[in-house]
């Protein structure tokens, strides 16, 4: 087993254990007790943000270039912090995938399951091949918005919709959504297009399909947030 796979497995196990203990660490309010697993699920997502944002890794030129990637963020192989960060991310998404399969009906969760599958595949390529890590780590900028996106869910479950905190979070959530989610995906799509000749066809196809799936999903979610928090 590669070190990356062992880190993914360890990350999955750690988040699974944390998920089981979170209800004791953060007891749900009365309004959330009918959906206890969702309360644990959201707080587990918040816990995932800590290591992802603490250090996104330090991609740097260390010698030989990965085949087919000669410039930009794809040109940088692993350093130890990058390996750690890139491996923690799919470990969490695997845990969340399993958690939703066990606790939520498929018709309610298929969009997120589809989203998680794309993320796991794309980060799995970086972890297994030890290539394209810089490009994968750019995607962690999305997690800055996830702080406020998950906080919104926590406030909803705690029945704190009609509060100043919720209103302020809604504004910051939409602002960071545009800057760190939509703009990041747009930059990644543009980079792939401009450097398509430097990336192996199979990897380029995976990246292109991933961007083609993630971009519309995030635009639709932005519309739902805008309609729910500002136009409802």
From TrEMBL:
Compartments (UniProt record): Membrane
Membrane topology value: Multi-pass membrane protein
A Gene Ontology term for the protein's cellular component: plasma membrane
GO process annotations (BP): membrane assembly; phospholipid homeostasis; plasma membrane organization; regulation of membrane lipid distribution
Pfam families for this protein: TRAM_LAG1_CLN8
SMART domains found in the cross-reference section: TLC
Membrane-spanning residues: 135-151, 171-193, 205-226
Keywords assigned: Membrane, Transmembrane, Transmembrane helix
Domain TLC: 32-232
Protein name (record): TLCD2 protein
This protein's encoding gene: Tlcd2
